[in-house]
Amino acid sequence: MPERKKTRTATAGTVRLGSGYPVVIQSMTKTATTDVEKTLRQVRRLAAAGCGLVRIAVPTKADTQAFGKIAARSPVPLIADIHFSPARAIEAIEAGAGKIRLNPGNIKKRDDIERIIDCAKRHGTAIRIGVNEASIRDLKRDVAAGERVALMLDEMTEYVRVFEKAGFENLVLSAKSADTVRTIEANRAISGRFDYPIHIGLTHAGLAEDAIVSSSVAIGTLLAEGIGDTIRVSIAGDPVQEAEIAGQILLSLGLRESGRPQLVVCPTCGRCQSDVVGLARKVRMILKKIHQPIRVAVMGCVVNGPGEAADADVAVCAGAGKGFIYRKGKKVAAASEKDLPEALRKEIERLSGGLQGRQQSQ
Amino acid sequence: MPERKKTRTATAGTVRLGSGYPVVIQSMTKTATTDVEKTLRQVRRLAAAGCGLVRIAVPTKADTQAFGKIAARSPVPLIADIHFSPARAIEAIEAGAGKIRLNPGNIKKRDDIERIIDCAKRHGTAIRIGVNEASIRDLKRDVAAGERVALMLDEMTEYVRVFEKAGFENLVLSAKSADTVRTIEANRAISGRFDYPIHIGLTHAGLAEDAIVSSSVAIGTLLAEGIGDTIRVSIAGDPVQEAEIAGQILLSLGLRESGRPQLVVCPTCGRCQSDVVGLARKVRMILKKIHQPIRVAVMGCVVNGPGEAADADVAVCAGAGKGFIYRKGKKVAAASEKDLPEALRKEIERLSGGLQGRQQSQ
Q1: Which domains does chain B have, with CATH numbers?
Q2: Complex-level ipTM
Q3: pTM of full prediction above 0.90
């Protein structure tokens, strides 16, 4: 697990954000906020998919009214996404937002900000200062890409100063761009200058087929450097998929325990003499029913096979026409290629049944 | 683009590896190497998908013989993947390998290594020292995860010393694990100690659905820190998919130019009053026929819409029942929701036709 950069703690309802707490996954509803039941269903699906916080857009007064009804029944604290309107910020705080997000690119008047700060203080509401490259003040088409990170950092610094002067510290910071490299650079810079918790993500990464890689690169790089206390994957599509990809990113860096099996599969090459990918797909189906964090390796040759077997709870090295099954690194059975899936199923169920038994008896 | 850590240059046939040259994508054939025609077809598909190098397993003498025939007709230099057998290394070098890969975990005798070095020197062949966590010497199940990176670094250092004593510098180094965090840590350590070009990748990342995120996180993080001169994504599946994901990783970090359009899409939220995802899918289809690096943004509201439009060659901000089309940040047309795809298609084709015209006249 990467060592996290030390930050203060922000409090959004029952959720704490910062280096002293696990990285929190969040996403955003895509339903019309005024449709309370539909939005609430999406909030619940997101919470079930691993979101500790859910953000909701509230462009109109009808939306902040609906927001209050949703917040009252939500399983997780809600964040109100504010743009342009100080009135919406105050309404959302009073309606029970655990946190609100302000965009320095479109709420700029100092007395507006100070009124929102006062209200958030009274209600114990967290505020994210969310700088977006696309909506920062003064951004013109002719600002060179290399100068935009500095512009985002300036914008952030100026805004943070207003909060600090008002004695408000329940802050989360974010700086997003649609560009992976500028998102990484902006967050490195902000993390270097401030010790508030950081929210990371790309502003928008596109359709899922284009977005998974760039989101993983941007968010993964920052987390691997210890930066990031809450993350959001932004995909044009079902927000549950955003939560699932965010979960995979955290899992890959050991920042989250899945409680589920891990399947290691060799990529196969010219050494491989059996259908390793077909076998792996069968094992993946078997593992869908297992709810223990066991490690299973499906390998196709002797180069890494025995080494991965030593690391796995259950492993198979598949060769020409037959394969060997390993239990915690010790060869325990041989089976023909045809019988391998069934033999593996038995071994996996034996092990996970044993684990379950042990867990229950504790 | 991240600044790349300065390295020496290695030469594998016509391909140079190191910080003075673009990051090279590589993959590995998964056909039986002795099936020359089938393997050659896969090599050609990989080259077409962006691989500058292709690696081939040569476990038997029949494989190194086939390797020679494949190398003679391959569009890119080939790498022979050597394990256990010094004889295969020598045969592969003599058969025309641009580079060979040795695994310190299974070729250990000093005079074997020196014989291979002598042969590689005579033929100008590059050698990758490829340490795998799963196959390093002395790896026992009880070596704690935290000590394995140090073990990989020791193994690498000992091996490199043999090469340096023999005056051989045409080296590439790699340290792989199935674990994302240890792969990142091992490569940071190796990059800190040596200045040879580095090959990065996870040993095996699993089936595609499990592998894309962890591969993007591991390889992306290292590249974002300037580490990595050639990359391989290891997926249990079609190697062309490995090359495509590798390409997306490089693209997301600006380490490669696609020459293709980029599609930015807002993730949508409660502010959105039209089917942005449906519109984006239509635009994605239109863009399949365009072969210029234009930037197109499909946005669903006024928060980031105008800012992204300013950055895009063509943009649309879709609202309730209608949308506005922007050309390089200037609003140029309005259309009903139904007519938007066609209006966008015209604008995109006008622009790309114009670009094509300009390119041809240069």
Answers
A1: 10-252 (3.20.20.20), 262-361 (3.30.413.10)
A2: 0.93
A3: yes
